[in-house]
Specification:
Order of helices and strands of chain B: EEHEEEHHHHHHHHH
Distance between the termini of chain A: 39 Å
Largest sheet of chain A: 7 strands, mixed
Bound molecules: flavin-adenine dinucleotide, iron/sulfur cluster, FE2/S2 (inorganic) cluster
Shape of chain B: flat
Oligomer: heterodimer
Structural class of chain B: alpha+beta
Radius of gyration of chain A: 23 Å
Amino acid sequence: MYTPEMLELIKRVEATRKERLHQEFPLLSADAKQELLHGFHPDFKDEVFRTLTVGPSKGERTPKEYADVFEAYSTIDPGDFDLSKVDHDVDVLVIGGGGAGASAALVAHEQGANVLLVTKLRLGDSNTVMAQGGIQGADKENDSPAIHYLDVLGGGHYKNIPELAKALVMDAPEILTWLEKLGVMFDKQADGTMITIHGGGTSRKRMHAARDFTGGEIMKTLKDEVLNRDIPLIEFASAYELLTDGDTVTGAVLYNMETEEYLVVNAKTIILATGGGGRLHVTGFPTSNHYGATADGLVLGYRAGAPLIYMDTIQYHPTGAAYPEQILGLLATEKVRSIGGQITNIEGDRFIYELETRDVEAAAIIRECSGRNKGVGTPSGQPAVWLDTPIIEELHGEGTIKARVPAMFRQYERFGIDMSKHPILIYPTQHYQNGGLKIDDSCETDVKNLYAAGEVSGGIHGTNRLMGNSLLDVVVFGRRAGAAAAERATSIKKSSKITLSHLEAFHAELEAAGVPRDRTAPMLLPEYRRPELAGRKLALSS
Amino acid sequence: MSQDMATIYVMGKPYEVPKDLTIMKAMEYAGYRFVRGCGCRGAFCGACGTVYRTSDDYRLKVGLACQEVVQDGMYLSEIPFFPGNKAIYDIEELTPTSESVLKLYPEVFRCLACNTCTKACPQDIEVMEYIQAALRGDIAKAADLSFDCLLCGLCAARCPAEIVQYNVALLCRRLCARHIAPKSAHLEKRLEEVEKGKFDKDIAKLMDMDEPELADLYNNRDMEPRD
Ligand SMILES: Cc1cc2nc3c(=O)[nH]c(=O)nc-3n(C[C@H](O)[C@H](O)[C@H](O)COP(=O)(O)OP(=O)(O)OC[C@H]3O[C@@H](n4cnc5c(N)ncnc54)[C@H](O)[C@@H]3O)c2cc1C
Ligand code: SF4
Ligand code: SF4
Ligand code: FES
């Protein structure tokens, strides 16, 4: 529900709407983009970062909140931990039940490997299930994987690893076909033509959607298929530490989130598919990510010796909800801008083309609020700008919003805001981890037999991912990881040498660097209980 | 009681919480740390289905804990899990007919058309309508109506006929995409082109370029107009 003051401000947006309706807004020049990013994007602020003093990426910088989990001890004492009882003996252990993990498990299982899939919450409780906007793929006549490739590289500031970007765009048609065969309901015209739209940074309309539940529809289908194939699955079981024979991974310690017991897995190959780290809340930003996005896979892989890449770039989604406070940080999907939504300041004036890449778009919004003082205040003090949604109905007809972004429409309706009649308030939110564990095009990290796929990996998207390339990435590389890990598993003998020697070495490094003993990771779940309760320890489990 | 606070009863136990919080945040404020019952925190995963009553009404209400704002005197419980029947099938081998649905989920026959499920759905889905559509063999309609389903399970928890509506819906959507939706000729064509190596040269050329060359191409690429 808007306050009377806000309704008054909305009149200014309404006043300029007619004039904006068919207004062409210019794209920024390459130089103007750089200036904007350097001036206002958090990735360019030194105080956000710290240089790592231990581990395989020592000397590289990463946001302090990430550094705090990388430079942290395990609560396991490697010198005194009983690994004598192996609970699960498998070929391929897949860690993380989002889009990448489910795809990997399906393919590895299809190839005949003995697979175990473990995940922190329920299968499918993930960032994947939350993706609304869409999935890219160059399948139209006027498009090609090469055009897609150029968009991916330009969006990623040319920092992408070429082999990974190639795999992404070349596998896309196959991935769309695979998903549809499994039963994902993509939006189509009556003749079967896929309905595709633009996303930030795309030069062709190649964003495919399943209404505004694209990730949800994909995730539900993959989950159903994992269950149909009876792939061994343990929910509410988090990976807590990897096990190695010294330098090759050979297993993992799992933590049963409910009973608090630990389980030991001995595996030939391991796939980390644990997703991102939005719940670390870099510099206090709100986040769009699910509850379990705490960067655990990065922590585990890093300790085992796998280097990171581009962990100094975080994607802030330009249009997170800024009001009402109950939904702070949740997304106003990019699709709203793809279908014509416009961003305006307090005066009702546009200040940036709506489909610039996300980093540029976010920086422009931050500049409008803190640099130019043209933001809109909200009752909680959260700065904001308008996302003019009613203009979509003027462009495409009444009812368009409810038909094209029903989930979002419903969300605002719950709080008494009709976004087809009133604009909404938005501000950037921590959204995506551009970097991650470094992999090759079969998803193997620098640690032998340890694979990574999905948001936990890095390099595919350079230093900035485009919308719709991540859903694509998790299926492309999830499948590649599943295939490669299964194949490796058939060609090697299992090592039953499962030790924590890598952890012992890592702890020694931490001690030498003077890292405080009470800093521990992985986090598993963020802490949202009222801070006053923490002092009353007895009532808390840890 | 201070003006901004509300008393809520979590599984019968009273807590005083700020009035503008969602049920989820209110429970955390009260000191609960979720392991179950919390997933996306944004109305996408269905982990947080909640039933509640208010003191002035005998009726049972439903909501998602991550979305619903607390009210003074709310009696609530999350239902993070409810046992449900899930059929095992090979989607390739099924036909999009009522026979397929009824063979896997014969209990759909038992639907009493009582509409309790529809009333229990926090997504305002016409649950009974999609079950009836599935029963009639109108698979496309069942798929369409159930599209926004989060698999929260509240409908199934309330169904007197013990139907697991969301699994029936998921089956219908998969049947629809796999066996009813018209094929995309352009996708099939593109897949063939990729397999034949049509783009290999173009990609190889781009992969060989250095940053200035790429940047020049990128900054001057032609853009398909927005709508
Ligand atoms: C709100 C939102 C909207 C988005 N919209 C789009 C979009 O429109 N298009 C697009 O392309 N991309 C989008 N993205 C990005 C994209 O959805 C994600 O990057 C992608 O789905 C990540 O998939 P994943 O499988 O790597 O990770 P996830 O889907 O997050 O899965 C990781 C899984 O691992 C589990 N896990 C975590 N730690 C552990 C542990 N220690 N042990 C065991 N399991 C663990 C998690 O609980 C989770 O189930 C969006 C993201 C969000 C948050
Ligand atoms: S609650 Fe069960 S019996 Fe009643 S209408 Fe719904 S599906 Fe049919
Ligand atoms: S249809 Fe059933 S499972 Fe799906 S959202 Fe509604 S109540 Fe939940
Ligand atoms: S936590 Fe996912 S729907 Fe509420």
